[in-house]
Amino acid sequence: MNVRRRLLTGTAIAGATALSLGTLAACSGASDKDGKPQVVASFYPMEFLAKQIIGDADVRVDTLTKPGVEPHDLELKPRQVGDLSEADVVVYLKGLQPAVDEAVGQSEAEHKVDAATLTSLEKHGASEHGHDHGDEGAADEGHDHAEGGHEHEGEHDHDHGGEAGGDPHVWLDPTKYAEVAKGLNKKLAEAYPDHRADFQKNTDALVTKLTALDKEFTAGLKNRTTDTFITTHAAFGYLAERYGLDQEGISGVSPEAEASPARIKEIQEIARKEKVSTVFFETLASNKGAETVAEDTGLKTGVLDPIEGINDKSKGDDYFEVMRANLAALKQALGAR
């Protein structure tokens, strides 16, 4: 595990909160600066949903995780801890950012929305199979999967996430992300009832776009020569399950988990057996594992973005653009046509 990922202790958080409240002029939340109600989101996927639902309403949305920062590694500053208590609504995803989980637990915000409670979390590991490998439908003739398949736990399961060990990366499945959007809409309407109608309209439009994106993935990945994709960060378990793919992660669901030499060797064998052409890395974490596997197997490298943040290296300016870039990368790697 990355030694940088350190939890703030209860004492540190309590002290940081006291400091923030004691120096209100310097460390106050956005609502005190411009008079607007404030929503604080933990990281980009939560910020994106909040902004899409709130739309033009006179509510400010801020994020704790700035562009370019790996969300799992976030360490909160005293000012950010203070903002959590001063916000009307805090939107986070429990299990993804330990420092945020602890700070939210001690926050005095009236509305605390855990996105993990707005959909169902499942366990995913480094080896995830989205469908059964039966005798029917040989890989040489391509696969036709119009719907997601079934999950089979691999022996290399790296639990990461909520209290029950659930994988938190729900936003990478457009359908589950839409479920979270619907739930968040209700929570925001409770906090800002005067905007209920506008929030519902915006949510309906967002869900329509997510449904269309799901159809794009289904159609785009329908005919392919292989089902298997290899990635450094096993964040794509929900996506793999939705579209009947096999995710093989060099490391676990945590981007900083280190793969064992045995796992590297197994990945190399899988790549040869499953005719994998590409090893994917991501924009916010090290690509060392991908480069090692690629060099040893003669494979290409590519980018599959878990969309935990948007920066100048991202292949798009928002969630939808990056998801479509992911689809294009998967189509090429899987030989979809």
Question: What do you see in this structure?
Answer:
It contains twelve helices and twelve strands. The strands form three sheets. The chain has a six-stranded mixed sheet with strand order 7-5-10-9-11-12, with helices on both faces. The protein has a four-stranded parallel sheet with strand order 2-1-3-4, sandwiched between helices. Helix 1 crosses helix 5, helix 4 crosses helix 7 and helix 7 runs antiparallel to helix 8. The chain starts with 9 loop residues before the first helix and ends with a helix. The N terminus is likely disordered.
Amount of beta strand: 5-15%
Count of DSSP strands: 12
Order of helices and strands: HHHEHEHEHEEEEHHEEHEHEHEH
Largest sheet: 6 strands, mixed
| Residues in helix, % | 40-55%
Average predicted local confidence, pLDDT:
79
- Number of distinct helices: 12
Terminal CA distance: 39 Å
Radius of gyration: 21 Å
